[in-house]
Amino acid sequence: SKKIDEFDDETDAINTFQELFLDKTGNEWKNGGKYKKIAKKYYPLEIDYGQHNNINNDQIQKILENNYKIQSNLSPSVQDLIRLIFNVETMKKTLLSFDIDLTKMPLGKLSKNQLNKAYQILTQLQILISNGSSTKTSI
């Protein structure tokens, strides 16, 4: 979002932020990271701001091209489709067209803990589905 508010002092800004955080997440900001997931509310994600940010996508692409020249059995048209789907620059342009600020919302920088939680949930869903659970309450 591009909404910008001006405040008379720091206290007003902090209070407004805390009210907005409570409204959007259902959690008090002062709980310091010990938040409960609430249905139909946002939940803060853990982001990994590690030191691996020093290398950019172009450098990664060059490393991959130089070190991993693998022969593919896929037809050239399928190879082109795969390259298009996984093209980082295309993804960036698409996200920017939706006014998503990649510096404020660094996709791909989720913490390992956050990814592990997501994996656990997906594993539980897979078990429920493969066991034939048909009720929404189970899922």
Automatic annotation (TrEMBL):
Transcription regulation keyword on record: no
Transcription regulation recorded as keyword: no
Residues in WGR domain copies: 1-42
Record-linked InterPro entries: ARTD/PARP, Poly(ADP-ribose)pol_reg_dom, Poly(ADP-ribose)pol_reg_dom_sf, WGR_dom_sf, WGR_domain
An annotated Gene Ontology molecular function: DNA binding
PROSITE patterns: PARP_ALPHA_HD, WGR
Reaction it catalyzes: NAD(+) + (ADP-D-ribosyl)n-acceptor = nicotinamide + (ADP-D-ribosyl)n+1-acceptor + H(+)
Top-level class of the enzyme under EC nomenclature: transferase
Domain of life: Eukaryota
GO cellular component term, pick one: nucleolus
Enzyme Commission identifier(s): 2.4.2.30
Keywords, ordered alphabetically: ADP-ribosylation, DNA-binding, Glycosyltransferase, NAD, Repeat, Transferase
GO biological process, one term: protein poly-ADP-ribosylation
Domain PARP alpha-helical: 71-139
Protein name: NAD(+) ADP-ribosyltransferase
UniProt source species: Adineta steineri
